[in-house]
Amino acid sequence: MLSTQGLSLRFGKRALFEDVNIKFTPGNCYGLIGANGAGKSTFLKILAGEIEPSSGSVIITPGERIAVLKQDHFEFDEYETLKVVIMGHARLYSIMEEKDTLYAKPDFSEEDGIRASELECEFAELNGWDAETEAARLLNGLGINEELHYKTMKELSGVEKLKVLLARALFGNPDILLLDEPTNHLDLEAISWLENFLYEFKNTIIVVSHDRYFLNKVCTHIADIDFGNIQLYVGNYDFWLESSQLALQLAKDANKKKEEKIKDLQQFIERFSSNASKAKQATSRKRQLEKLTLEDIKPSSRKYPYIDFKPDREAGDQILNIESLSVTIDGEKILKDVSLTVNKGDKIAFVGPMARQKRHFFRY
Ligand SMILES: Nc1ncnc2c1ncn2[C@@H]1O[C@H](COP(=O)(O)OP(=O)(O)OP(=O)(O)O)[C@@H](O)[C@H]1O
Ligand SMILES: [Mg+2]
Questions:
Q1: pLDDT digits (tens, 9 = 90+) for 168-222
Q2: Distance between CA atoms of 191 and 184, rounded to whole angstroms?
Q3: What stretches of 5-109 show up as alpha helix (H) in DSSP?
Q4: Of 221, 219, 234, whose CA–CA distance to 182 is shortest?
Q5: DSSP state of 304
Q6: Mutational pocket test of ligand 1: of 11, 17, 43, 227, the residue with most ligand atoms within 8 Å of the beta carbon
Q7: CA 328 to CA 311: how far, in whole Å?
């Protein structure tokens, strides 16, 4: 289990966090949300021990292992990708290194033999024999095929590196998994694989994301950073959004009788539980939701910014018309005979594996 006690962080005069007391328990996936600059990344760094708080402390159950999605894409440039993934479990990797050094010794002594057998024992306990298979499975799942497993990181593209670093964090079933914006730059297939992985994951996850669809799929709780504090809510992103607004409305509605408010709340929870897409998560979330009382549902202090575009004149019905557009660059056909009409109010997603095609399409 992971918790904080009276945690505060100040940068000069500015307090980013003030007296944060929060508990993260196994089996739950916490979506850490908040405006840009609210302190999400900083909070994860404090939990990971990379930044010292100004006061207060982070408490982790002794023996538990934290895994973090690394942000430095060049840190492992000289290592093979499969190795980088296994290095995610520092203890296991150091055992492997020490074993290799021992067995390579020309004058292998009796003492070395004893040490080697100790290492073999711990190696087996940590599931070391399956390490390469597991690392390969994670890489393949994220779309990094076998031919890249033995290349060094510096030979990989930016997105490929990112996927390796993600596999590194997921490797070896950590007790606590900290992920800062893991879906950034990932293709849809990799995002969907990650969603399933996190969904099956049994330990504690804390994930920062600005992607509400992703948060809705994986989160059992929402941790909202606002005004230097962190509030925990049961449920996924949409539940948080609606329940905190419902709570605000109920709080304003002072004349309404308590029984009526409870009825409103129950109806809301029922609607939400039956909507949840995946059965297992739905039932465990439902159990948590059913325990909620009116007092548990807290209004959020969040203000919602928005952008309001005022057009000079009303747009016509047809916004864009493309007929038989083809593009060839350096002999490569990027677009071939593309026709498309965009009508007013259309919302179009460009999907597909080739980043270059999509980029060129927008450029033209
Ligand atoms: N070492 C530092 N010294 C001073 N201020 C800092 C330092 N590190 C971070 N900050 C400030 O702390 C605030 C929180 O930054 P952080 O990166 O944690 O935000 P975030 O919630 O992750 O934002 P985003 O959604 O944009 O990723 C920012 O205003 C940032 O400028
Ligand atoms: Mg951040």
A1: 999 999 999 999 999 999 999 999 999 999 988 999 999 999 999 999 999 989 9
A2: 9
A3: 40-47, 81-86, 90-103
A4: 219
A5: -
A6: 11
A7: 35
- 115 in Cβ contact with 189 (< 8 Å): no
State CA 251 to chain mean position distance.
33
Q: Which two tokens stand for residue 230?
A: 């962190």
Query: What is the rounded distance in angstroms from the CA atom of residue 23 to the CA atom of residue 44?
Result: 14
Ligand 1 atom having least distance to the Cα of 208? 22
Please tell me the distance from the alpha carbon of residue 187 to that of residue 292, in angstroms, as a whole number: 37
Task: Report yes or no: 123 and 96 within 8 Å, Cβ to Cβ.
Answer: yes
Residue 353 is predicted with a pLDDT of 67
Position 263: which residue type? K
Q: What is the largest CA-CA distance in the chain?
A: 87
Q: Whose CA is nearest to atom 29 of ligand 1?
A: 37
What are the pLDDT digits (tens) for 210-262? 999 999 999 989 999 988 899 998 888 988 888 888 878 877 777 777 778 77
pTM over 0.85: no
* Ligand 2 ion: nearby residues, β-carbon < 5 Å: 40-41
Continuous segment of H or E residues that includes residue 253? none
- CA 16 / ligand 1 centre spacing (Å): 8
Q: Is the CB of 38 under 6 A from ligand 1?
A: yes
Judge if the beta carbon of residue 36 lies within 6 A of ligand 1: yes
